[in-house]
Design a protein that fits this description.
Strand content: 25-35%
CATH superfamily of the largest domain: Oxidoreductase, molybdopterin-binding domain
Strand order of the largest sheet: 6-5-14-9-10
Largest sheet: 5 strands, mixed
Number of helices: 8
Distance between the termini: 69 Å
Number of domains: 2
Radius of gyration: 22 Å
Structural class: mainly beta
CATH architecture of the largest domain: Alpha-Beta Complex
Shape: globular
CATH topology of the largest domain: Sulfite Oxidase, Chain A, domain 2
């Protein structure tokens, strides 16, 4: 029996936090209440969103685990956990976000296929492990390599989980070789999350963390790394997680006409107050949320409107990042890969529409309407986020008309 294997049923699922909103039970997909996200710069692992395509794999004997490194490399490897942990340890503060985050809102415009997610299909973690480029260097590939002598141009990550979309095969994804061998890309093979050993839900014993890229490329329960001539041909690279215009639907989609999604766009959402919250006329309300952008682009500012988008105020950022787990001597600038938590306290006169939008360091902005970016898989919904706040009673509402 393999020491790490993907079960074919859900009899050995790990326990989960009761506060999670379960969007799919089998496979288990869940997100926390949005208000919990802004309570801490680092998202606790128990409420960090869970995204799965099959039963959670089981490691029967850690001492027998081996990571296979092969394909178009000059020195194939078979590494134990002990050997991996002997390599230089690096730490990266990075936000992982499911490409389907905020899909439910997109589906309200026009139905899409996929797990329904609110605004909390993301989390910010402190990931520790070995750099991918260190592993590739052991296999004979130097830093900054665009192609190997024998034609390798991509690095494929293969899991052990069982996915129906892969006809019972494992989940897999890839990144370009140049990205994999560039130190500033900060791609990790992580064995720790938030200063603790990875738990089963988040990829124990070893997972990939690709900062700034949709979560679908950060493969969990890693079994193998293979250098290949072509990008991964698996389902989740070739027939899913691609962006199409609103004119394309399931009757006319051509999956080969689009590239696999990688960097996520600038994103922003309100976490509190919640939709439908009730406040008295003239009350002071603190609005909080998150903002982030992919590809290593930081957040320049967050704009908030309390009158449906007629006028805007700039929110202030707060990180709450100092403490036992995070310090300034981590290997990367937290602004590069992590989210920004923001807040603003304003006086409101409900009923009102509170809107938030962000601008990243490359001056990328969010589209106003979700309709303009609707796509058949409901991915990358980064339209302006709006929360409706109601008056404390009907008389207040009438008085405000």
């Amino acid at each position: 029996m393999l020491p790490l294997r993907g079960p074919t049923n859900y009899d050995r699922e790990p326990p989960r936090h009761p506060s999670l909103t379960v969007n799919s039970k089998e496979p288990f997909n869940a997100e926390p209440p949005p208000c919990t996200l802004v309570a801490s710069f680092v998202t606790p692992e128990e409420i960090f969103y869970k995204r799965n395509h099959g039963p959670i794999p089981v490691l029967e004997d850690p001492s027998e685990y081996r990571l296979e490194v092969g394909g178009l490399v000059s020195k194939p490897l078979s590494l134990s956990l002990e050997k991996i942990r002997m390599l230089p340890k690096h730490t990266v503060v990075a936000t992982l976000q499911c490409a389907g985050n905020r899909r439910t809102q997109m589906s309200e415009t026009k139905h899409v296929k996929g797990v329904g997610w609110g605004v909390a299909a993301l989390g910010n973690g402190i990931w520790s492990g070995v750099c991918l480029y260190d592993i590739l260097e052991l296999a004979g590939i130097t830093q900054g390599t665009t192609a190997t002598l024998n034609g390798g141009k991509h690095v494929e990550f293969v899991s052990v989980d069982v996915c129906k979309e892969e006809n019972g095969g494992p989940y897999k994804a890839s990144v370009p070789l140049l990205q994999a061998t560039t130190p500033s890309a900060d791609i990790l093979l992580a064995y720790e999350m938030n200063g603790k050993e990875l738990n089963r839900d988040h990829g124990y014993p070893l997972r990939v963390v690709v900062p700034g890229v949709i979560g679908a490329r950060s493969v969990k329960w890693l079994r193998g790394i293979y250098v290949t001539a072509d990008e991964c041909q698996g389902f989740f690279m070739q027939r899913d997680y691609k962006m199409f215009p609103p004119s394309i639907d399931w009757h006319n989609v051509d999956w080969s006409s689009r590239r696999p999604l990688m960097d996520f766009p600038v994103q922003c959402a309100i976490c509190t107050p919640k939709e439908g919250a009730v406040h008295a006329l003239g009350s002071m309300v603190t609005i909080q949320g998150y903002a982030l952008s992919g590809g290593g682009r930081g957040i320049e500012r967050v704009d908030v409107s309390i009158d449906g988008g007629k006028t805007w105020l700039e929110a202030k950022r707060y990180q709450k990042q100092r403490g036992d787990l995070y310090s300034s001597d981590t290997d990367n600038d937290c602004e590069k890969w992590a989210w920004v938590l923001w807040e603003i306290t304003v006086q409101i006169y409900p009923p009102v529409d509170i809107i938030a939008k962000a601008v990243d360091s490359s001056a990328n902005t969010q589209p106003e309407k979700v309709k303009s970016i609707w796509n058949l898989r409901g991915v990358l919904n980064n339209s302006w986020h709006c929360v409706q706040v109601q008056a404390e009673n009907a008389k207040d509402a009438l008085r405000n008309l």
